[in-house]
Protein 1
Amino acid sequence: VNIMTIIISLPIVTLFPSIVAATKTLKDNMNEGSIFKCYFKNFGKYFLKSFKMGLVIILIYGVGLYGYFFWSFLIDFEKNPSMEMVAQIGIPVIVISLIVFTFMIVHIPLLMITFEKLTNGEIFKTSLFVAIRYFITTLLMLFTVALVVGILLFSMVVPGILAVWMIIGISLPMFIVIRVTTPIYYRFAKIDFKKI
């Protein structure tokens, strides 16, 4: 699962669909015969919805980072001093928004595979609720993601670690996150959203 996810993620736009496919494969299809067949079946099944979600995520991060750098570095406050107060308010708002959004997106792959009938907008709302309601679990998930990225960056300095990361770098942390969050999503799966 790890190597397939890495290869399919090489074009940035397929990163999120490959993560959703890996999540579904690790969560439900580990006992089935061919892991390749299950992975690509899940990739095809969730591709369109997760591709759109991935584009929205990239767009939101892009706009947020552009706003941060615009207000931090591109405005000359000596020429336009009135904009300094706007920047002092805007920069913290942008940073807090990006942090909250980061807390939300760690839950999105699990929500997509647990609630297949929810729209992307409903998944965003639900991920905000889950991220706040289960804050400690969300922190654990973020720590796991940071660990994966950190080991990848460290492996660029120490090449021997890259081989190990290629084998277990994404799938093992993802498997741990799935097992830790199973009780939460088991309870959510029983909720009838049409009654709410």
Protein 2
Amino acid sequence: CSKEEAKTILKQHGLDPDKEILALNFSKYIDTWANKEGGSMGKEAFVNVVSAAISEANSRINAQIAFICTQHHDVPLTREIMAKVEGQQPKAIFTNIEYNHYHIKALLAEVSLLLGMRLHATSLATSSSTPAVALPHQPKVEHYLRRLGLQEQVLNFDGFSSEILAAKLVSAWQKKEQTRQHLDQIMPAMKARAHY
């Protein structure tokens, strides 16, 4: 999928590819994202906390929002969060039901920042030097960000709240160009190692 095709897809969903876009990726397996005491947040609380955080963060960064699903069974949860996110900026959802991984990778190359739970979305974004913040529901997501030298971009469950998530998003947004430059420098070597 070319850059021009990705821009056309964004336009078809009501987003302007020439303006800033915040991408969001969630996993339905939120019950595996538990604190050290073994308790999980639960779906309703997760939807409320995340939607409030995105609404608050976007009131400050004022970006369009692209919800990206790399697994079809994440779509219902994503739609619930999308419905609760407040604000005037356009929102759209892109799923692997309509688009293959080439399309998703090209779309993620056009966004300004990704908040991702799944490794698929996080690796597709960062391979195009798109900065990412991770909400890791599995250790492999956190390990991947650490390998990229972006461990400060990982948000853990302990102490998780809408205020903490909003602050993390705003902070990552403010330094997204610095993160993009870092990814531009390290990704060629990472890709070369992946081909061995």
